[in-house]
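For the sake of transparency, this paper describes our internal protein records without simplification. An entry from our holdings is shown next, in its original layout:
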Amino acid sequence: MKPIVKPIVKPVALVAACLVVFGLSLFAQRGGGAGAQAAAGAQGAGEEEESPLGQAMDGLQSGMRAIGRLLADPDKKDEASSTAREMQNYVLIAMQLEPAAPDGVEAGRHQLDFRMEMHAVLGELLALELAVREGDAEGAKTRFSTLNGLKKAGHDRFRVDD
């Protein structure tokens, strides 16, 4: 006999939501990661409060700056790996906070495209973490370069000017 009520939330979405909720509370308890600290500094400077998606993107940007420095030092392998994992959490958060579609663009398709792009970023971050863990410096640099390319393409495609 088939269940009468179908599940509303798919398991993957449920896991992502749990990561978002528990990840954010973990960051808050620890004082936040590099991105949270950057966002707090920006808010402390008297700037207007940023959207949750903007905060997730700031976390990714802060992680990119940090990991770029860490990849230059083979002794910082654990820290680089940890930063890559933190960035993966920001991607999962961003995927739940889809951007508004620009005028003339169908919102559902725009948001689907955004999630697909963020999925590609997540895949590269996982591959970067693996390269770092395995001591593959050239592979890690290649993944970092690919991430920079995805960032530029994503900003060109999804950033809406205020």
Observations:
- Residues 107-133 form the longest helix (27 residues).
- Confidence is low (pLDDT under 50) at residues 5-12, 24-31, 34-45.
